[in-house]
Amino acid sequence: MQGFIGSVDSTHFCFLLDTLCKYGHVKVAVEVFNKRKFSFVPNVRMYTVLICGWCKLGRLDMAEKFLREMDEKGIEPNVVTYNVLLDGICRRQRRARLQPEHKFEKTIVLAEQVFDEMRQRGIEPDVTSFSIVLRFPR
């Protein structure tokens, strides 16, 4: 990567991760992140970008793995990180509209767990947090 563009700061690195994720190349973004995370101090923005990428692919398991990794590294998630996770949970419900009613209930339980975790960490849900939950189909 440095051979192409010279020195890269964490903002540019995050932009690269974001672009890869937006175009569906989350696995590539994770590979780049894992290879280069020792060159930069990983921050909440980098992790949030990766969590968002996994959520867009419907891989909440991987999104939650990165959330746990953040915690292990002492990086505090913020309201944006949790909003991305909430959106991923609700997107999964939108995709599963034809599924049984228990999917809806499971989505509500997962969303409540995210809200609880936010409050435990002292992060108040914002307008976006509530909007994400309110707009998904029942």
TrEMBL record:
What PROSITE patterns does its record include? Answer: PPR
Taxonomy, superkingdom: Eukaryota
- Which Pfam families does the annotation name? PPR_2, PPR_3
Q: PPR repeats: which residues? A: 43-77
Keywords from UniProt, A to Z, are:
Repeat
Please verify whether the record's keywords include Plastid: no
Q: Does the keyword Ubl conjugation apply?
A: no
The family this protein is said to belong to: Belongs to the PPR family. P subfamily.
> What is the protein named?
Pentatricopeptide repeat-containing protein
